[in-house]
Amino acid sequence: MEEAEKEVDMFLKNYNWMNLRKDIPAGIIIALVSIPISMGYSQIAGLPAIYGLYGSVLPILLFGLCSSSPQFVFGVDAAPAALVGGMLATFGIAGGTKEAMAFVPVVTLMVTLWLLLFALLRAGRFTNFISTPVMGGFISGIGCEIILMQVPKLFGGTASTGELFELLHHILREAMQHFNLLSFVLGMCAIALIRFCGKRWPKVPMPVILMFAGALMSYFLPLKKYGVTMLPPVEPGLPSFSVPDWGVLMSVDRHMVLASMTIALVIVAETLLATNNFAMKNNYKVNNDRELWAYMLGNLAAAFTGCCPMNGSVSRTGIAAQFGGKSQMMSLAASGTMVLILLFCTGFIGYLPVPILCAIVICALMGILEFDLAAKLRKTNRAEFIIFMAAFLGVLLLGTIYGVVIGVILSFIDVFVRAVVPPRAYLGCIPGKDGFYALDRNRNARRIQHTVIYRFSGTLFFANVGTFQEDIERAVTPDIRQVIVDGRGIGSIDITAAERLPVIYRNLEKNGVRFYMTEHPGVVNDLLYKYDDEKLLEAGMCRRHVEDALAECGLVRPYPIVAHEGDEQRIQIPYIDEKVAEYEWIFGEAANGKLIEAAEEIAEAIVELGTFDEHQMLRGLRKQAAGNWDEVNDREILHHVAEVLHRLAEESREMHRDAHGIEELQHEVEESLEEHLRHPKE
Question: What is the pLDDT of residues 107-116, one digit of tens each?
């Protein structure tokens, strides 16, 4: 706690007061938007609606003072409220009764004790094991779940809790029994206006404008008479402090203890994940341990003001970000605003149309969905896309905790699979260049005669040593005399792999093939000694560099290579279809496509300008490639530009246009290419 208090002092001491112009309005908007959200979730938790507003005073204030996140918002929210409501049903306690009002603060106090334990155990470290796809899927699942909870309120129904199928069933039932066309029109128009104005005029606080517009409409028009639901009126006054009923606490059974632990876990998982997700997107860091203390203090204040358990609010945080909140001063402003509302403006609350307020919440939640990340993962990494969808569907179908657990388990499986099948490659050399290059990623690379150079980029252990052995044995043909492993990626080795290496060594030795391990860190040699493989070390299996192993085999630069058909011409005069090794190494299969795209743009620019300046063109390309461009690329791009100009000339003739100028430009490019071929700079 000393560290937390020190950081609080720093926040107050070093606050940039210029941010007040954004923090204060953002805080006011948070307080206003919290009115419908907090009141609704308070009722779901079995408390009178006014307790939702009470929970938006002291808990938010304490959280704002203690949190390390500059923008996350705390308050009464869906998941804890729904879980408390479920506990009431389990214990047979009716919502809104005196029994419920005595029971809920006790649950909040028990949740606070669990959060205290988590803070003491520094449980915030578990988020280090949660990947971006898990975070994105989790946030999207939570966002969709809360949107589905809110949908019935758009057309005059009531909110619900539960998972996907329960929510869909409730939406259909409410639509059949309580559908109100005017409510639906108001809600959908509000969504359309917020979305449109958010894109067109993002700095206009449309949610607040619509809130006041809705209040004015209900004041001057008989909206209630036509079935539009309003927020219930509340009595003015600040929350009072009271100690939770110890009699209820002493009578709790193990089911209540386990249920309160589940709520605490949900608060930690949901709020920490969402906080870290916002921090990552906005390029700052949060202190997870300090966050747990902030959650604990916020819930402690909630317990002593009679409120339900509270956690971070994704929807309100999205609204705060939309309106430029810069620090937790906005939480202090929100708390102060709620005090003023409770003292002087409670009469205004009864005029707020629920469909418009629901539309504000839904739009805020739509802004935090991560489906763009899912689309990117689907194109780039199928495994991570599956992890995203598993976390997303897990939250929707099974609940918050299960969604996180499923995502984390799949992440660990993905890590294990990557360790089992690490990046591997067979290496060769490029005539005239130092180093060794992957044969499958460098067209100029050639295998050294009678040699296999095999790069294995992962820890060598029981699950992948079989792959290691199979790759080596598959590459050994009758002409091979030495196998050299480039093991710079092998940072460790287990006993299973240590027992397999002598087997590989002996099998190759029987066939007259030498076996070497090179480039690996010295710790691998230490482990081999510990695993009783010193005989291999003494026999000279390990060499510091690939070149050392080649030299022992009598091979020195320039290394004899395995020639391909037509290599004599390629080596003497580099062929125009070759790519520079570094450029191809960076872009892989996309290298050729990038060159062709560049050629298309250059050819069209040449035609438009009517002139060809080789030096200016190549100078611009070299600058774009940032050092990954050389003479080979010059020839390649000129070749493609000439081809594109030829095609443009043909197209021009087909359209009965004069193609003479394009042909002249094509000839200039071809002459420049021939000059490069006659006098290569390499």
Answer: 999 999 999 9
